Amino acid sequence: MTGGAGFIGSAVCRHLIKETGTEIVCVEDHAKALYLILKKGLPGETYNVGGRNERTNLQVVQGICTALDELSPNGQPHDRHITYVTDRPGHDHRYAIDASKLERELGWRAEETFTSGLAKTVQWYLANDWWWSPLREKVYAGERIGLVNVG
Q: Which residue has better confidence, 38 or 3?
């Protein structure tokens, strides 16, 4: 298993899990949408950028694990690392975007699906551990954040 699979397989797949809905859009699609808005959007108008890819946190983590099973198999399913945790206090239950105005008025649509975008993202992390490994070692070790210890 490469360093990337160790990071993604054991750190990301361990932490999230709540049925919170999140809108997922690939960064390249988002950048293309922003460029289109800059070039053709009307001044003062608001355009929401979304990929029609709303998923729960669990679906995102399962997707990461599936991509790792395909791209960096290690003999066992990566989803064995999933641990269910309680939600953070005050955590939003849904992040949804209605991008229909952007689609209708400017003709934009996301090119990546959830599966294709996630596969590209996992591939990037596997190939670029030089980028994230120092952060993992010196800044964020994978511990759960966003909770307050009282007492």
A: 38
